[in-house]
Write a structure and sequence with these properties.
Blueprint lengths: L1 H10 L13 H13 L1 H19 L2 H15 L12 H26 L7 H33 L1
Length: about 150
């Protein structure tokens, strides 16, 4: 599943840009793993996702750092299976994890890779928030189409 999401990200969603920012399917995937499985698992998946995305794009170290950090930060939104959280609370935590993971991954990529020569502050703040919002839109769509039943379990 990780490879499929990575390929969709690199060869599909990266073509839909708005100010050189695109929705981050990897952040959505890592947030889902973080909420369901926990921080350790999402960090590991983030490292693997960064490795695959880095091999595809040619920026291995930067993608590994960005996605590992995104998985780690999203892990703070973990909802244990034995918790008494409602479906709405789990989905809200998922959306929060998507926002944090998307912003963190974009901020790290903005510091390390800047093809447009834009100021880092602009790339981190403005484009980071824009990417987080685009990723949140993708997460809402994924939740409505695929994930709702997973949160009900």
């Amino acid at each position: 599943m990780l490879c499929i999401v990575t390929f969709v990200q690199e060869f599909g969603l990266s073509r839909f840009t708005l100010l050189e920012v695109f929705p981050d399917a990897l952040s959505v995937f890592l947030a889902f793993i973080a909420v369901k499985k926990g921080q350790k698992t999402s960090t590991t998946f983030g490292f693997a996702a960064g490795l695959v995305a880095g091999i595809i794009s040619g920026h291995i170290g930067l993608h590994m750092l960005a996605n590992t950090s995104a998985g780690f930060l999203a892990g703070f939104f973990h909802t244990p299976d034995d918790s008494h959280a409602t479906i709405k609370q789990k989905i809200t935590r998922f959306y929060g994890a998507v926002m944090i993971a998307g912003f963190a991954a974009n901020a790290i990529m903005a510091v390390g890779y800047n093809p447009l020569g834009l100021p880092p502050e602009y790339r981190i703040v403005t484009l980071g928030v824009l990417e987080a919002l685009l990723s949140l839109t993708l997460a809402i769509l994924a939740n409505q189409l695929f994930l709702r039943k997973s949160f009900a379990d």
